[in-house]
């Protein structure tokens, strides 16, 4: 069974930091790319950051470049999203996802072909 479980969300003040974790089971990072996405009810979901199965390529949405860092620990089967200098507009529920191989994108390919976790909430107050 494929399972992704997010953790590490919470409530922080603007300018603060959080590090999200996503433990993955049932699939191998060697064969699956992974990513972090966020969603606010009533708004479209957004791809935040994605990493290729090789680990050689990471894509970030423009609004988080320089503030967020995606990484993975193969031994722990875990994806991470380190979020620094958080802003109120970063408030959302954050999800991790995995999809077969790599399609040079952080969006529709995951929505169509990906496995998803249940999400972890992030609230940033001003």
Q: What percent of residues are in strands?
A: over 45%
The overall pLDDT average reads 96
Low-confidence stretches: none
Largest sheet: 7 strands, mixed
Distance between the termini: 41 Å
Structural class: mainly beta
The amount of helix comes to under 10%
Order of helices and strands: EEEEEEEEEHEE
Radius of gyration: 13 Å
> Got a strand count?
11
Total helices: the number is: 1
Backbone shape = globular
Task: Describe this structure in a few short sentences.
5% of the residues lie in helices and 50% in strands. It is mainly β and 126 residues long.
Account of the protein in words:
The mean pLDDT is 96. The strands form 2 sheets. Strands 2, 4, 5, 6, 9, 10 and 11 form a 7-stranded mixed sheet that branches. The protein is 5% helix and 50% strand. It is globular and about 40 Å long. It has one helix spanning 108-113, and strands at residues 3-7, 10-13, 18-25, 32-39, 46-51, 58-60, 68-73, 78-83, 92-100, 115-116, 120-125. With 126 residues, the chain is mainly beta.
Question: How do the helices and strands line up, and which of them pair or pack?
Answer:
Blueprint: E1 3-7, E2 10-13, E3 18-25, E4 32-39, E5 46-51, E6 58-60, E7 68-73, E8 78-83, E9 92-100, H1 108-113, E10 115-116, E11 120-125
Parallel strand pairs: 2-11
Antiparallel strand pairs: 1-3, 3-8, 4-5, 4-9, 5-6, 7-8, 9-10, 9-11
Descriptive keywords:
globular; mainly beta; single chain; 5% helix; 11 strands; 50% strand; 4-stranded antiparallel β-sheet; 7-stranded mixed β-sheet; 126 residues
């Amino acid at each position: 069974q494929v399972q992704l479980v997010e953790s590490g969300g919470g409530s922080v003040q603007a300018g603060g930091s959080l590090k999200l974790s996503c433990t993955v089971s049932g699939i191998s990072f060697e064969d699956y790319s992974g990513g972090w996405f966020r969603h606010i009810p009533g708004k479209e979901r957004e791809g935040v950051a994605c990493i290729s199965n090789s680990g050689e390529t990471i894509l970030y949405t423009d609004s988080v470049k320089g503030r967020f860092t995606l990484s993975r620990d193969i031994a722990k089967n875990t994806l991470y999203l380190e979020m620094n200098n958080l802003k109120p507009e970063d408030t959302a529920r954050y999800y991790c996802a995995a999809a077969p191989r790599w399609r040079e994108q952080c969006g529709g390919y995951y929505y169509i072909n990906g496995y998803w976790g249940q999400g972890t909430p992030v609230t940033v107050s001003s």
